[in-house]
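To whoever is on call:

I kicked off a structure prediction for a single chain this morning and the downstream step that reads the tokens threw a length-mismatch warning. I double-checked the sequence; it's 292 residues and nothing unusual in it as far as I can see. Pasting both halves so you can look.
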Amino acid sequence: MAAAAQALSGCGLLLAAAALALLAVAIGTDSWYETDARRHRERCRGFGHKRSDPPGSMSAPSSHLPLRARPPRALLPGRPPAPAPAAAAVAALDSHCGRRFNSTVSGLWRRCHRAGYEPDSEELIRKGVIQRCTAVKYHYTSSSLPRNLPINITNTIRQDEWHALHLRRMTAGFIGMAVSIILFGWIIGVLGCCKQQELMQYVAGLLFLMGGTCCIISLCTCVAGINFELSRYPRYVYGLPEDISHGYGWSMFCAWGGLGLTLLAGFLCTLAPSLNTSRASIQKPRQENGAV
């Protein structure tokens, strides 16, 4: 029983160390969310529309997702009404092609152009005209708000910007708490194994489970934040063209893998002391009727 308990504790600590490594990789890399705009660019090039944005600009209305399109003409002041339904598809393509959508990767701290996806942007990056990566903002700034919009739409965008900022802060804060708690639990678990202290091993397991809970909150908040960004109003500013591929990257999967290993480590470390407890209760002599 004692050997089995030590084996479970050792496996739990190894899994916790692997979880820390995966979470560290996820926090330090930028492939949480990826977009691929090559098909959209080819389609707009075939359409023959000239973009008004300079090459390499990310056209970022918010500090997390770098994609938006030009507002439809019917909602801009002083513009003629929307085109007839027969020309709606052409007008939609024209509005999307009016802005430049770049292939990007986004992480907790930076948003970057994807290397090798856009030759013209790569040339500007080599010349130093634009930067490959820009920082994700964790503070509110009015410079990210679109201009020349009605006041009611501007107020809605400002409220949504605060909500998106709150979600980003929760994502970064809770994953930082998760790493700190898991690291502290790992230290407690190693000391418990070295000193043969079952209580310390049990506490380490509880800390792993607590860190996994914080990690769950962080990742769920991250997913909710991305979905919120893609569904923000007005859709013509924050909507995503259908021909742009987008999805979660390998950094996100590293974080989910670290979460799974953390929960498994917590289960093993809390289970191990119960084996030694069962063995001690079996070997303990029983005294009946005051007999020695």
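Update from on-call: the warning came from a stale cache, not from the record. Cleared it. Sanity check on the structure: The longest helix spans residues 151-195.
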